[in-house]
Design a protein that fits this description.
110 residues, 5 helices, mainly alpha, elongated
């Protein structure tokens, strides 16, 4: 925790003054620097989100979180029977009769 106080008032004052404890050393120096930059009390001097996401390390981690495939390629992996009425053979029987439409009822005549 970067801010530690004996009570809410002391904690608030430390936050407002930017008096923070050093981060645990298990975090990299770079991460510690980022956290300190985000907690600067002067908004003009504080690290902006725009600058944060442009940092090489942050950008690299963000790239790992982005889906590697486009939504259309994910949709292409869903197998749908050529004849939609065949789908009813694969549905669990317990779902019928509980207000759920039968797949054959979903077919709209063209």
């Amino acid at each position: 925790m970067p801010f530690i106080g004996r009570g809410a008032n002391e904690l608030k004052n430390k936050i407002l003054r930017g008096q923070m404890q050093p981060l645990v050393c298990k975090y990299s120096q770079e991460l510690q620097g980022v956290v300190r930059s985000l907690l600067v009390t002067d908004p003009a001097a504080r690290l902006t989100m725009k600058k944060l996401v442009r940092m090489p390390t942050i950008a690299a981690h963000a790239a790992k979180l982005r889906p590697s495939s486009s939504p259309s390629s994910v949709i292409d992996t869903i197998k749908v029977p050529r004849n939609i009425t065949d789908l009813s053979k694969k549905l669990p029987g317990a779902a019928r009769g509980k207000g759920l439409a039968h797949p054959a009822d979903l077919i709209v005549p063209s």
